[in-house]
Amino acid sequence: MKTCPNCHTPTLQPTVYHNQQVDVCRTCKGLWFDEGELDLALASADDDYDTVDVEKHPGQAVTNSDRLCPICSAPMTSHNLLAGYQVEVERCPQNHGIWVDKDELEATHHASQLHQHLGELNGKVNWKTWVFQFLTQMPVEYNIKPKRKPWMTWLLILVNTVIFLSGFVSVDLAKELYSGVMVPNEISHGQHLVTLITSQFLHGGWMHLIGNMYFLWLTGDNLEDALGHWRFLLVYLLCGTAAALAQTSFMPNSPIPTLGASGAIAGLFGMYLLWFRKASITFMFFVYQKKLPPWGFFLIWIGFNILGMVTNSQGVAYMAHIGGFVTGLIIGWVLLGWVRARYPVLTVLEHPKLKIRR
Ligand SMILES: [Zn+2]
Ligand SMILES: [Zn+2]
Description:
By secondary structure, the chain is α+β, with helices and mostly antiparallel strands. The protein has helices at residues 37-45, 102-121, 127-136, 151-166, 171-178, 184-187, 195-198, 206-227, 229-250, 262-275, 294-310, 318-342, 344-349; strands at 12-17, 20-25, 31-34, 63-68, 75-82, 85-91, 97-100, 141-142, 280-285, 288-292. The model is unreliable at 46-61 (pLDDT under 50).
């Protein structure tokens, strides 16, 4: 029997793993693959597993290991299995084979699920993302792609847009539509409570609409995937309603109408921040574009809102934003365990060996 690189005893026993001939250590359960066997073994284990080509990441630091090749006794080198995923395998510099510790072996099963996601999360900012953000003043998102089609998000965007455009058809129709705005003074007297919902679908101008719909599109697809279509709609309306109520309680006698999807979308920010921690959203500091974790991005966003509220700038319902955001955080926190259990990719992304480059 060959000598185990980990135990230094002749305990490597030939066995069959995923229909493949390999050597397993009887003591530490680590695996030794003669050259080429690892690729074949894992390819048959999981269809979407890319071959483990440690040579493909020349930029990664290759460190010397204290383990010795069981064939030639040369010190082996350590390699990360995937960029961003800190699972190490050791390889003989003479290409005699690859050693995988038992703990690392278990982690490789996550690697197959993570392979595509890591590519999406680890994307770099480049001249295209820079030009996009510079011209539109809108961030770029780096997150996993949703598995389900986010048709409820699309439907919400469509409904908001159609209602906005309908306002241009005739003055009478516009009057009819904009009677759906929320007036705190009325809500605090129990009147026109339906406007808590209808006001969420009304926008005061093109930039108001486009800004809101962009952020709905950015966060909605992933949240809808995690929640399911109808639950997503429910929490969306709930956050929007809570936002309108927060605005009302802040200034109950205000006759100033409030409208827009911002409060509901602020709620989406709160959930996104808790559930998609490995995602990135780009922020532009003057002309410097930087990938930020969601908590960093939304911290800046909420900071601007608090600043706006303190300095009392007109035209933006800051309290509605803050109220929606806090509601989203609460819903996100309450549902965190449920969402992780129902949406396994979130659990996989929480793997401690996962490091995102920002
Ligand atoms: Zn061993
Ligand atoms: Zn060797």
